[in-house]
Structures are given as C-alpha cells and as structure tokens.
Amino acid sequence: MSHPTIVVSADGTPAAALRRAGEVASAANGRILLVSAYRPVAASRLRAERREAKRNDCPEELLWTINSQEDVDARLEQARAQITASVPVLTRAHNGGVAESVLEAARQEHADLLVVGTDRQSVMRRAQRRLNGRVAREAGCDVMIVCTSGG
Fold first, then answer.
1. Residue 103 is assigned to a structural domain of this protein
2. Given this model, what pLDDT does residue 70 score?
3. Which whole number is the average pLDDT over 77-96?
4. Residue, of 20 and 127, whose pLDDT is higher
5. Is 137 within a domain?
6. Per-position DSSP letters for the chain, written without gaps between them
7. Using an 8 Å Cβ cutoff, are 49 and 66 in contact?
8. Long-range contacts from 74-82, C-beta under 8 angstroms, 24+ separation
9. Is 57 domain-assigned?
10. pLDDT of 151
C-alpha cells in the first residue's frame, strides 16, 4: 500500500497549517515533504540587504525573503519543529520562487496533497493569497488551504 506524500512550504506558512499537515499525514499513514525556496545571494549583498531592510523597519516576518542557504536550512528545521505529529518529515531547499519550488517538489514526488496556509492577521496576507491561488490552479494534486488567525 502506498504512503501518501504531503508537500508543504516552509516559507511563511503559519504554524497551524504545518500542524494540520502533520495531522493529515498521521491519519493517512503518510509523510511530509517540507520545501523552502531560495535564490543564491552573494554574502556581501546579503548583509547589505538585511541592514537596509532593518533600517527601513522591514517587519521581521518578511526578512525570510532575504536569505542564504544557511537561513533556508534553519527555516526548514524551524518548520519541522512545528509538526507535532509523529510522521516522517523530509526537507528540500529549492532554488527558485516559493510557488515554483512547491509545485516542482509536488510534481517530482507525485504528491497526493499540497498544504498551504494563510494568516488573516499577517502583513503578508495579499502575497499569501496570490501564492495560494497559483498553487491551487497549477497543482497536479489536491490542495488544502488552512485558514488561521494566528501562528
């Protein structure tokens, strides 16, 4: 019998959506693939962009968009820690945008379900809606959008 694969983005996904993905994977005897997107950035440029973003009062929740490979690995581990269900969790860093990375991982792994989240209180609400809409339109599998009012 096949074990379902559930793909979840680690980039800005609310903790409640990560937990829900774990619950679904546990109930279905499945596994989770956490995906985080990145674009390689020279270290000097990365430092300068982070300093500039902080100087301009960039919200902390948006700083994940300015990242290095180490940041991506740390983000994947933070997301993994939010999944409280006892299920296999694989991680993958993917060079590209968030939507492209999640969709590509879902295709490569023949995912059964893609879980995305939206936080009604987040300053990223509009970006999340665009991302979730694109994922829902282009995914070759079922998509679960978990609405939360907080982490």
1. yes
2. 67
3. 89
4. 20
5. yes
6. -PPPEEEEE-SS--HHHHHHHHHHHHHTT-EEEEEEEE----HHHHHHHHHHHHHTT--GGGGGGS--HHHHHHHHHHHHHH--S---EEEEEEES-HHHHHHHHHHHTT-SEEEEEEETT-TTHHHHHHHHHHHHHH-SSEEEEEEES--
7. yes
8. 75/10, 75/11, 75/36, 76/10, 76/34, 76/36, 78/10, 79/8, 79/10, 79/13, 79/18, 79/34, 79/36, 80/10, 80/34, 82/15, 82/18, 82/19
9. no
10. 47
How is residue 115 written in tokens? 């879980």
Structural domain count, the chain: 1
* CB-based contact 108:144 (threshold 8 Å): no
Provide the CATH number for the domain around residue 89. 3.40.50.620
User: What is the rounded end-to-end Cα distance, in angstroms, of the chain?
Assistant: 34
Asked if the structure places residue 18 within a domain, the reply is yes
Predicted TM-score of the model (pTM): 0.72
Q: CA 69, 106, 145 angle in degrees (round to 5)?
A: 95
More confident residue, 87 or 125: 87
Per-residue pLDDT tens digits for 25-64: 999 999 999 998 877 766 676 677 767 777 666 665 555 5
